[in-house]
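tool_call predict_complex ligand=zinc ion
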Amino acid sequence: MAVVDSQGTIRSSVVLSQVDVHAAFGGVVPEIASREHLKAINPLYRLALGEAGVDLSEIDLIAVTMGPGLIGSLLVGLCMAKSLSYFSSIPIVGVDHVKAHIFSVFLEREVDFPFVALVVSGGHTVLFEVNDFVSISALGHTRDDAAGEAFDKVAKFLGLGYPGGEAIDRCAARGDPRFMDFPRAMIREKNFDYSFSGLKTAVVTTVKQRGIDFVRENIDHICASFQEAVIDVLVEKALGAAISKGIGRLVIAGGVAANSRLRTKLGERAQDEGVELFVPPVAYCTDNALMIAYLGGKMFERGIASDLSLNAYANVRY
Ligand code: KG4
Ligand code: ZN
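tool_result ok
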């Protein structure tokens, strides 16, 4: 939950992570996620308004995530937002959370339109051309696993726990990325699509062949080699999209945009190619309500609003 004012100034932002609850299961359990949302939503609402020092009567707009994501969790947020809108007559706008990720960078600084955006998270890997807050078109996406999903699955397989992106990032920082040569799927193909499931299988197969002692002794190198393969494809395809569209600005966003190696390598390669790179602060890369509030506000300024028939969606094709 977050409160943002009309200048985009952050008045409050409270993020409740359920990672500890789900870690024991090695991944998110949808039913538990919905129940945890239900338990947390009222206290978080009071906390967000309290920290911002505002009363509901001072709120001009309610922005809420309508998808994509786990339907049970989405419905909890949507019911709360619709109830607040109904009894207080505050307008409501439904926001797509993957598109909201794009604008997490705007919480710190604005970027001129048009730009290319790579949203790379646990559920999505999408390249967008962004011409305005309400004019966003997909250039390409992953054909199978999202990059974050590949991080999480490989981390789980290597015994690094859940969620795995951060753990792999930490191990990889101590490892040699040239230790193993993993596939960089579709890197030379003249499209803006990705594929990560073959890479995940390659890691699992190679590691199984070499045995548990090999993994224990070389965990940092395996992580670094896997991570480098993911990042090489993300970097080259995102830059390729910006260059081929003749757009000199690139934004990255989503949980995997917190990855330290991606931030460094993309920074270097963007400079080589003369593309200006915009990266959100790490704290705004993973899911948060600030980006929802920000994009919701911009949509509303452009005349977009929802009504109480607003519904959640689990998946969408961009
Ligand atoms: O955007 P996000 O919070 O949720 C989704 O919309 O999916 O992204 C979560 C994903 C997870 O897969 C997590 O492993 C990954 O972001 N992630 C990272 C890092 N921090 C989070 N992946 C690589 N390196 C990181 N430092
Ligand atoms: Zn997300």
